[in-house]
Structures are given as structure tokens and as C-alpha cells.
Amino acid sequence: MANARSLIVFYVLFFMFVGVTLPFLPVYYRSLGLEASQVGLLLSVGPLFALLVPTLWGQVADRTGRPGAVLLLVCLGSLAGFSILLTARTFAGVLGSLALFSFFNAATTTLIDSLALQQVADRGGSFARIRTWGSAGFVVSTLSFGFFVEVIDRRVVLAALALIAAFTGWALASLAFLPARPRVGPRADLAGTFDLLRQPQLRWLLVASGAHWVASAPYHGSLGMHFTALGFSPSILSLSASVAVGSEVLVFATWPRVSARLAPRRLLLLAFLVSALRWAVMGLTSSPAVLVALAALHGLSFGAFYVASISWVADRAPPASGGSSASPARACSTRRSEAIASSSSPPPPSWCPQPLRCCASTTLPRAATPRDGLPREDPAWNLVRRARLKPPAVGVGAIGATF
């Protein structure tokens, strides 16, 4: 079984890669001379593959009982796909590279999360504390890269490839040859999803979630281009991204205390109002200091939505459904909507607030495996307790990937 150190190192390296690509890769696409509409289509590739790929690779891992080996396979595929970007200069070449890369990479967080949750289930500890190291890696890499370069160019691809090679090598050395664990109990299917979708409140929640992700796609994909159009240096972009992720970590860390005092419905309402204010102000200012300060609201715009909606759905999930029933619905509500927003219209040359941004940004729960003695302060334990999940009902295929 994977130990905590092996998982932490992988999380750090993987999210260091995300910290380079998420803010800076769209700017690199523009440097190739691609049109804004083409960049929008490229940004839709990842969300489209995330609809089905995590479930596909998760099922492979469940049936073989070797999630570490499957993780190595998707890492190698990601490395092969992303390496094509070194020579791709046309829209077709970049699109092909991203399609191959996304076919594998979309399942990475699903697989590593399953290993981390199994570690917590078997040996105790905190999933949140293990996962937080990934956020730390994101902050370190995005700050380092943003302050190191003055112009976004091919170095984005080189740095990203080096990090993919690093976490692939680590997966080979410490995670790929873990002993097989036979799958016990029922396998994930769509029956639980349809049971949940019969609830009118959940359907409205999914509509709100999809609307939010459509509205948020320009922020997630085009913030770098927006900052570049305003004449900001890469360091401003990296600082903004780091503040945003830091605020997420703060929300996740304080959630157990907050949830005891504030009902999920009220927290969602607060996040709605804060998000609407955030997007409106971002559309009215070109001050780098104000824009970086507004990034601190990301803890509510994303973090609070995430944990509050998890709790909201977990309270309504049937005892045996767990994450397996929620994962497909979650993918449809977040990834598909983000893909539609990215591909249907080009990223705006300047920030344009949309009324839909005040809608709920919600995601359905990741599966977790409860264990007697798991610390009560761990958010994963709290969600498992409230959803009443059982170990036999949860596998890798039940865990949805997200960032």
C-alpha cells in the first residue's frame, strides 16, 4: 500500500505541473498566433475528456485492483501526448496533442485520490492534509515560474514536460508496483445517479452548477490572456493564482468549524453574492493590486461552493450510493458546461462580467472510504459520516477528478 510520503510527493509534483500550465498555457497558445476562438476550442478539450475518461480508467483500476499501475500508465500517456506540443505550431497539431494528453491526464487525480483515500482508510490520518500539499506545490511553481520569466514562450512547455517526467518517474518508483487489492462488493453503476436525479432540488442544483461553470470558463481559461492584454507581467498572474489557491486551502482547513455554525444552503447563498461581486468588480477595474486582492475571494467562489455543495448532496444521497452515483452527474454539471463555454465563444479580450456568474458553483461528492478512528476534524471523514458510505460501495471508478 502507498505510504503518505509517496502520495504527498506525487501531489506536490502533479500540482506543480498544474501551477505552470493552468495560468500560462493559454497565453502560450496565443503566442503561436492562434485566434482567440481557436484557443477557446483548445480549452474545451480537457473538460470534454473529463466527462468520461476518469470513469473509464477508474473502472480499469477497480477491475484489476492495481490503481498504482494504472496511474503509471496514464502518466506515461500524458507525457507522450504533451511532448507533441514541443513541435506543434498549428491549431491542428496543438489540438491533437491536447486530445492525446487529456485522454490520459483526465484520470490522474481520480487515481491518486483513490490511493490517498485508501491510505487514510487503512492507516488513519487526514486526506485533507495529504491533499493540501498539492496546493502548496501549485503555489510554489506558479510563483517561481511567473517571477522567473518575463515573456510566456516555449519555456512553459519545457517546464511542464519536466514536471510530468518527474511525477511519472515518482509513480514508477513508489506507486506502480503496489500489491493488487481485490475489489469487494458491488461495482459502480448509474442506478444511484438516476435515483438522485429524481430529487427536484438536486436537479435545480445541477442547473445552477452548470450555469456557473459556463460563466466561470473565461476566468479559468482566459485570465492569463486578460492580464496580458492589460499589460501585466507574468509575475502578476502567478501572484493572483497563488492568492486564489491559498484562499481555497484556508476554506478547506476551516470547513469543519464553519459547517458546524453555518448550514450549506446559507453558505451557498453567501458564495453566490460574493461571486457576483467579484466578477462585477473584475469587469470594472484594470488595477493589478485590486485584481490580485479579488483573487482572495476565490476561496468563496470555488472553495466554499465545493464543500457546501458536497455536504448538501451528501445529506440527500441514499446510504449505498456514495460517490459512485454522484460522479457521473457531477461530471455532466461541471465539465460539460465548462467545455460548452470554452468552445462556443472566444475568450473575451477584456473582462466581461456575466449575470450567470452569481449562480452556484457546485460539485458532487468525491467518494471516500470510512474507517473507525479516522479523525473527526478531517473533512473527508465528516463527508463520509454524513453520506453514510460503506467501503464495499466505493472504488476508484466512483471518484471524480477536479481542480
Concise overview:
The protein is 70% helix and 0% strand.
Lay out the secondary structure:
Elements: H1 4-31, H2 36-49, H3 53-64, H4 67-83, H5 91-105, H6 108-123, H7 127-148, H8 155-174, H9 191-197, H10 200-229, H11 234-259, H12 264-282, H13 288-294, H14 298-316, H15 322-344, H16 379-387
Tell me what you see in this structure.
The structure is a single chain. This protein has helices at residues 4-31, 36-49, 53-64, 67-83, 91-105, 108-123, 127-148, 155-174, 191-197, 200-229, 234-259, 264-282, 288-294, 298-316, 322-344, 379-387. With 403 residues, it is mainly α. It folds into 2 domains: 4-174, Growth Hormone, Chain: A (Up-down Bundle); 191-398. Helix 4 runs antiparallel to helix 6 (108-123). The longest helix is centred in the middle third of the chain and has 30 residues, at 200-229. The protein is globular and about 55 Å long. The two termini are 25 Å apart. The model is unreliable at 319-403 (pLDDT under 50).
